[in-house]
Write a sequence for this structure.
């Protein structure tokens, strides 16, 4: 790490408590806005002991994650994909005969919603309303 990067890191660490509170607030807002949608499953989180650095959800029946990502991006929302299954990682590639159908199905249905300290409550609402609006085009279960 360079001295400049270290200096930036030290300054950012001074803001950790403020950032942690904000991230928890955003995650709780997502939880609340998604609680009524049976097809968007949020993960159980321990907000007492963990600060969410990403907000992963599973969209039951998601058929075209890349299409959804592009459509969300076109609406000004960047969603991500994290947590590749281990058997897809380079370390395990030598054993190509591994097939984990449940893992692979779930992997195709997970997305990460934006979560960072600069997101406002209006942004959170926009992310969820946009996701709900677009899901019927990319999921076989979305209503």
């Amino acid at each position: 790490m360079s001295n400049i990067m270290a200096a930036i890191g030290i300054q950012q660490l001074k803001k950790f408590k403020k950032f942690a509170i904000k991230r928890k607030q955003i995650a709780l807002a997502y939880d609340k806005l998604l609680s009524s949608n049976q097809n968007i499953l949020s993960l159980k989180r321990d907000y007492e002991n963990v600060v969410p650095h990403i907000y992963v959800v599973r969209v039951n029946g998601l058929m075209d994650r890349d299409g959804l990502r592009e459509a969300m991006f076109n609406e000004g929302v960047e969603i991500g994909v994290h947590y590749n299954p281990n058997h897809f990682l380079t370390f395990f590639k030598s054993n190509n005969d591994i097939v984990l159908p449940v893992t692979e199905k779930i992997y195709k249905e997970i997305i990460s919603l934006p979560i960072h300290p600069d997101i406002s409550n209006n942004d959170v609402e926009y992310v969820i309303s946009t996701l709900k609006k677009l899901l019927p085009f990319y999921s076989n279960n979305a209503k």
About this structure: The chain has a mean pLDDT of 91. Residues 3-138 form a domain with the Aspartate Aminotransferase, domain 1 fold (CATH 3.90.1150.10). Residues 16-34 form the longest helix (19 residues). The chain has one domain: 3-138.
